[in-house]
């Protein structure tokens, strides 16, 4: 952001006895001055710097300069001008209007941090409603009562006006004089006398009386009464509304810090056609600065410039607000307005300019401002130097900060408390422990106390440079200064964690600070969390074992947080340690147990996880949806799908459990893997009925899992709905729909899906295999062969699955020549035959009664090393039955058991059929009875 070059005018009358040089206009670019010829009356007198209070310049970036205290005198006063009532000023301090105060003002305020008051865009609609919302209605409006005894002035009403000649024939001046005296002394008496004046007709065109009573109402916070009084004086008493009326109320808001209300009176002033004066803008801008109200400040400042009114403090306030809010571009505009509006700079303006540049880090420009300030006749000022030193410290330019510090005594200015504090902060930012420590020691030697920021800086430096003895000493000093022990602990932990030296904290943390940790549950939790985060689990458990606070609920929550944190930080074994050391309770904590089941599952310790689940199941604790989800996933991960289904059955019995999207998808996958088609269909229709919001993952999961459980029409509708909502199916979903359409002989839809998958780049080998298998099952050999060619053409090598599909199709159709050709191509492709290949060959040869070929395939299967599986044995038994080799079929059952393969229902069915076909009915009955006996 480019800095603007300004020509700024200074006050030529300041300390005329001291200043003999000619005051000149200023250009920041060369810091040279020349004198304007038009300087004359109307300039402002600034009290000497020796009477000024020093400003505390903080290291914090958020602290800015405040405008000066209010002082009102005449039409041109720094900050305010003109009358606020019938007097030349409004103030509760009687000495503000005296001649001895003329031309003087309090130049500076200490830095302060003020929270910005939220703006209500509807504030203009109703004064009363806004006031009540802000709780500003301190006193009810006092309404005149004609029948009240207070309207009679005599010795019986308890009001002494110190004038026995007051009556209904008294002049307005006499009445106003008494009202003015009462207003300064007693609000109640002033209100009573005002009622008497109202009854006796003393308020007609009496602006003075109304101004005085508005002061009273402003002090009392009776804003409804003030609003009614303004309407009354305009409509009933025939008074002309002037800026004095509204200035009185704005001044009251300024003293109370009521930003929004002050803005209301200002806008009401404009709505009534009353032109503000310099005092109006001075008070308003100071008020807006207190509340950091940018919008209202901009409006008032723009109005002031449009009216050609010059209020020096308003410029300072606007610049301070922009600087405080870090609106540096707009701050530069205000600096430009100093030159454009030919503002005569006073001390406040100079210091605000200096601060604005320092806050932006423009220290070169700030140096030029300081030089120009000196040339303009202003004596060296500790506030200005402190501001610059703080600015250099914030950008860690301690060479220039040290030079400024050395210049102080040369120019006759002693460094103060703020100077040393700023030097400590600057050297701290520069990470120079020795220099920071030197200024820290000097600050204390001079009798000053370091502030919390200095202590924080020193503590961080001591931690970083390994000065543990000084760390302990600084902690004790922080406690002696009244710092909160919880805050000290937080600073200490933050400093050591930043350097990854948290393991040093146990040796540092002792004495009263450690006692505080053991007694305060919040500090205790902060410490043990820091230990857990840094894998210091034994230290954390030691603190928990020594703690002296008792709060069962907080303790459970803390242990749960520690357990979850151990898992998140990648140390599940620490979570087990924390859980083991927990105090035993009669009623288990559901959340802790749930987290531990998950952690044990992560460690593959399913036995411990199941123990915890069974403990919960046998207790009176009702499981929630999250617990059921964790337990289900535990069983799925362990491979116990039937147990997972039993957990889902138990969940369904609890009517108040509503599964979330993730659990619903888990349920679908489990039911699919367990081949529970009825459960899948039931769950699907529940989803449709319940109105669950479907996303892309839900559509894919339902289609993939329910493909064998739902009618093809319903799956097709669901797939089309998915596409209609703009969700792109994944490869698995495309392949599932290919399989569904292929098995249903809906080849047109299958080709559409396949084409869509190819366009999306999602067609894979399984897609081709699925389509080839579908054509093979339908004996559509032409399309089957064509798809195989396309598969090879599109860069996919013909897979073993594709060969198996073609073998099965040609073999079942009896096209043995093509069957043999496919076998030859399979051998030439380099693919090794799998169980499916051998089983197809055994089945085809067996169906044809080619028992020799079956024996050859069986021998090859055994020689390959993979050996027969359950399907192979079942197929062989069927083939031996067809060939009449019953004894061999029975021997196969014995061989299966010998090889550890348990016969299934198909095994016994094929064996019984073989016995029956070969007239072995008695043997068939025996095997049939055996099937029933074993429950098949």
TrEMBL record:
Domain of life: Eukaryota
Keywords on record: Repeat
Gene3D superfamilies recorded: Tetratricopeptide repeat domain
Keyword Repeat recorded: yes
Assigned protein family: Belongs to the PPR family. P subfamily.
PANTHER family (UniProt xref): PENTATRICOPEPTIDE REPEAT-CONTAINING PROTEIN GUN1, CHLOROPLASTIC, PPR_LONG DOMAIN-CONTAINING PROTEIN
Protein name (Swiss-Prot/TrEMBL): Pentatricopeptide repeat-containing protein
Organism in which the protein naturally occurs: Datura stramonium
